[in-house]
Amino acid sequence: MPTLRNGKSTATESSAANGHTKHASDKEQLVILGSGWAGYAVMQKVDRSRYHVTMISPVEYFVFTPLLSGAAVGTNDFNSVVEPEYHQAYARKVDFKRKTIECSPAIGSEIRKQELNRRIDDDSDDAIKPAVSYPGQKLYTIDYDKLIIAVGCGTATFGIEGAEAHSFMLKTADDAQKIRTRILECFEIASQPTLTAKERRDILHFAVVGGGPTGVEFAGELHDFLTGDLEKAYPSLRPLAQMYAESVAHKTDWRLTLPFYSTIYDVAPGVLQGFDKSLSEFAAEKFKRQGVAIKCESHITRVCEDHLEIEEEGDVPFGMLVWNTGLAANPFIDSIKDLKKDEKTHVLRITNRLNVMTEKDEVYGDVFCLGDCSALEKKAPPTGQTASQQAEWLAKNLNALVHGSAPPKPFKFRNHGNMTYLGDFTAIIDRSSDVEGPEGSLTGKTAWLLWRSAYLYKSLSFRNQVSLVYHWLCTWIAGRRVSRF
């Protein structure tokens, strides 16, 4: 019988036997699809005394995504950026007329996971019937009174061959763990005495595709890890690192002497295109001084196991590639045929009260969509800031509905500015375009302190706030751990 992680049953014995879950509670059944910024925040703020909340997600935690870059290099612990949630499953189909959701468990053996994770729009019998039966792996349906779709988006690869197969994304805690492991593997390989100088340079080249806030922040954290911790942990490579300053002074090709280096590639003319131009230029100059190369207007044509094929440069070897480009519609959203979608992004179009609608503009009053998988008529950036504001508004609206109080005014996004980390205790904060409150910008260590304070404040539990402070202090005093675990 499917159960929630808080130990409460989601069904009676008779309904579970038929693969159908229905609560006997008098509360309204609120089902949330997705455990990201939007869905998790609604679950926290909705009145649980009036709603029976079921959260459905294939991963068993909420991820505080802005801190994933730090987790990937050991600045903070992986457990400091996740919060547990309740119902680990894949949502397969939604029947909006019957108000039911078809689900399949997201637990079990890896073979079974792959079997259940086939394309959800595949109507063949093989797509839903396993070749081997496993206990607790049957399909089942869940009823809802109100439904929140907050499944987020994937990372766009723009059809570039090999991008998905040979690069690391940075969307989940598992991704951050894999990145950390690969960084350490590269250093172990580079330390082997059998490598030539060129092979060592190639394996210690860390490429980042995408010059937006996520890519830039990861490049900053990676720089701190490489120069502040790994250089000390691998003393055999240190003499080569010291040659970097001399190569810069003599204007030689620093890549020929630096034992490890990073490069940010982007098709745009500069990094951080959403920021004020002066801040974008500040970030570029800061990275240049740190030894992080920025290659803008680069057109990647193919990604191979150990090198990029770039139109402007040819083959560029790497030891690790992290891909942080635009957003791609979630396959679950692709599978929904009877709702209106945005023509450009293919996510669900929503009203200013966050309701979904049909192609004929008929509104489903009990179905809401928010976060990256939604598109308002008046566009809002697909960021955690937008998702958090939508979640706060929707929780107020849902609470007003069950309490009989006046609903809030239609949702309106309020831009509070952008911020990102550049490495070496330096950040930038941009409040120069369409922001609520006074405009302005800030750079340097003061901006870094505000950046850290904002992320600490936004952490969704006191436990994680304490954990973050502890690990930040440990990193500052004793450095990052360089073990693989």
TrEMBL record:
GO terms for cellular component: mitochondrion. Residues 29-391 form the FAD/NAD(P)-binding domain. Residues 1-24 are annotated as: Disordered. Residues 1-18 have a biased composition (Polar residues). InterPro entries: FAD/NAD-bd_sf, FAD/NAD-binding_dom, NDH-2, NDH2-like_C. SUPFAM superfamilies: FAD/NAD(P)-binding domain. This is Uncharacterized protein. It comes from Rhodotorula taiwanensis.
